[in-house]
Amino acid sequence: MSPKSPSIDESEIEKFRAMASEWWDPKGKFKPLHKFNPVRLAFLRDRICSHFDLDDKSRTPLQGLRVLDIGCGGGLVSEPMARLGAQMTSVDAGEANIKTAMTHAQETGVEIDYRVGTVEKLIEAKEPAFDVVLNLEVVEHVADAHQFVQDTASLVKPGGIIFVASINRTTKAFALAIVGAEYIMGWLPKGTHEFDKLVKPDEVKNALKSAQIDIEETTGVSYNPLTGEWSLSSDTMVNYMCVGSRSK
Amino acid sequence: MTKHLPINADHEIIISGAGPVGLSLAIALSELDFNCMVMCKEGEFEPQKGDFDGRAYTITPTCWQMWRSFGITELLEPFVQPVSKVEAEAASFAPLSFDLEDAGEEGEPLGYLVEAHAILASLWKKAKAAPNLTIKTHQNLRGIETHSDRAILHIEGEKEEYACKLLVGCDGRESFVRKSVGIKYPGHDYGAKGIVATIKLDQPHNGVARQIFLQGGPFAVLPLKNNMASLVWTERSAVADSLMALNDRDFGLELREKTGDFLGEFTMHSARFAYPLKMRVADSFVSERVALAGDAAHAVHPLAGQGLNLGLKDVATLAEVIAKAAHVGLDIGSPLALEPYEEWRRADTVSMAAGVDILDKLFKAPAPLRGLAGFGMSSLGKSDKVRSILSKEISGAEGSQTPQLLKGEAIRF
């Protein structure tokens, strides 16, 4: 188990423990994220392994890679990545998110460098660049998406790789991700996403290119309401993931 | 609390119970590169020296596939009788029969009758040779603690504790693991017992398994090697007890009287065993750091011979769920990782248990309703669709949701 974090007040620990168990409850409030998570984790693992030519048979193939998870929330991606061997730096602007994530990582014995902060602060502090940068489901929540993608891309090492995942700004996305997920299915709190803030894959790609990132691929992630399962697809009209790399 | 004691945490997964289900799971997980320990109470599951004692299992083709991929079936070869046809009759009513064409798998038998001692011996042999796999026999388990990051086992007479990420209870109907974590095991008793015995037949059985319904319940004759057959005779408990009290000669006479010329000439061959019939399904198959498989999770009426097969389906599913969770970095003992196992297996088990239960109730109904049951069976038998569904259920073949191991494949991601 990792040592106790100095930034968590003992009197608050119960609160964060409760929040952590909510984040990690497969049947709880974040159920749709948990259903979605294995698909994107498998995608990340697969693309990272082939990019760095790692042993995909290994139980910890990401050993030796420095990985940044920006907007890490409760750590739903950071923890699995750490378990696959990655050396994680996980940043979120929400203090409650970071404390929740830290509490959970301590409970399950995973080592992650969690920090309250923003990408601007990392750049300001001259944080060394990373092998892998994860920018997952964040661009649709920030004030200036173009700048934000550029900033995160600037933290990718030469030879490194970046993933940007988000929801497209299309009628279909509006119908499925906002009306469907928030209002009809009640999967996400109403108002989680604002249509005008959604970012198109081309806008992400342009921002990446302006930070000297080469676009490797863009893939869609689709939900099948009959089986209740998510899978990768060529349809990027709703959920999509963009992969880019910086040349050596 | 016993925090000061040394913790043995070399194993990611501990399996409690070394019966056919526990050992199959251990072999599957060891092949997937998980570090496992199988724990069993001294003498409880270890194969007894000696020969065939009259107990046999029916194994469906899908479960057989999985064992084939483990290299178990070649060890079982001398002890196996393939089933080429299943005939289920409702007394004097039209027979409902399944044969190879119904199952749709060309050249593949409908099932395999295997002597129980051979199964256990082969699985032990394989498990002992498996990499990453430790087998430990012990005294009684003293207690189980579950924490957010581990489960810990305490054993009577041992100072050492055994910690793991995931504890799997494959420890049978009276599962200590299930009881320790407080999972309920509701269901009902049929007030009946199944008597198992082996006979030597005069007429060749040609690999046909037959089932008829007698006054007390279903009566099955399952083909074994060397033209022997395993009987499963279900009777109300009081009747079963008195049948068990008879000597071989009188039991044989009673058997002849009840079944008429159904069996032809035969001689009694083995000891008899009687098992109380119960239907039980655990309220949950998983809890924090714990999963249940086999009889620890469910006990069904043996009418369709599904007991061990359900357990082996648990094995295939759980191994796949664990492997896929670890592949994407999930904590294998967390509720998040284990939830698909619960979702996948519980529905299947409950529908199987309920189906067998309803069928059984129809045949136990008062005379006018029994007519209905017979009518139901014969009209069922005429519907190709229903026949194909029933055949699939008996042979264990399923649709796209079939775990990969049951297709005889390695787990792919």
What is the number of E strands of chain A? 8
Provide a count of the helices of chain B: 12
The chain-level mean pLDDT of chain B equals 81
Please estimate the helix content of chain B.
25-40%
Structure description:
Helix content of chain A is 37%, strand content 23%. Chain A has 8 helices and 8 strands. Chain A has helices spanning 13-23, 31-52, 78-83, 95-108, 119-124, 145-153, 171-184, 201-210, and strands at residues 66-70, 87-92, 113-116, 130-136, 156-167, 214-224, 229-233, 239-245. An 8-stranded mixed beta sheet of chain A has the order 3-2-1-4-5-8-6-7. In chain A, strand 4 (130-136), helix 6 and strand 5 (156-167) form a beta-alpha-beta unit. Chain A is globular and about 45 Å long. The relative contact order of chain A is 0.13. The model of chain A is unreliable at 1-6 (pLDDT under 50). Chain B has 12 helices and 22 strands. Chain B has helices at residues 20-31, 61-70, 73-76, 100-103, 116-129, 176-180, 237-245, 248-259, 307-327, 335-364, 367-382, 384-395; strands at residues 7-8, 13-16, 36-41, 56-59, 80-83, 85-89, 96-99, 111-115, 133-138, 141-146, 151-155, 161-164, 166-169, 187-201, 208-214, 217-223, 228-236, 266-268, 273-281, 286-287, 290-292, 298-299. In chain B, strands 6, 7, 14, 15, 16, 17, 18, 19 and 22 form a 9-stranded mixed beta sheet that branches. Chain B has a 6-stranded mixed beta sheet with strand order 9-3-2-13-21-20. Chain B is globular and about 60 Å long. The chains are: A alpha/beta (248), B alpha/beta (413).
Topology:
The complex is a heterodimer of chains A (248) and B (413).
Chain A lengths: L12 H11 L7 H22 L13 E5 L7 H6 L3 E6 L2 H14 L4 E4 L2 H6 L5 E7 L8 H9 L2 E12 L3 H14 L16 H10 L3 E11 L4 E5 L5 E7 L3
Parallel strand pairs in A: 1-2, 1-4, 2-3, 4-5
Antiparallel strand pairs in A: 5-8, 6-7, 6-8
Helix pairs in contact in A: 1-4, 6-8
Chain B lengths: L6 E2 L4 E4 L3 H12 L4 E6 L14 E4 L1 H10 L2 H4 L3 E4 L1 E5 L6 E4 H4 L7 E5 H14 L3 E6 L2 E6 L4 E5 L5 E4 L1 E4 L6 H5 L6 E15 L6 E7 L2 E7 L4 E9 H9 L2 H12 L6 E3 L4 E9 L4 E2 L2 E3 L5 E2 L7 H21 L7 H30 L2 H16 L1 H12 L18
Parallel strand pairs in B: 1-12, 2-3, 2-13, 3-9, 6-15, 13-21
Antiparallel strand pairs in B: 4-8, 5-8, 6-7, 10-11, 11-12, 14-17, 14-18, 14-19, 15-16, 16-17, 19-22, 20-21
Helix pairs in contact in B: 1-5, 1-9, 9-10, 10-11
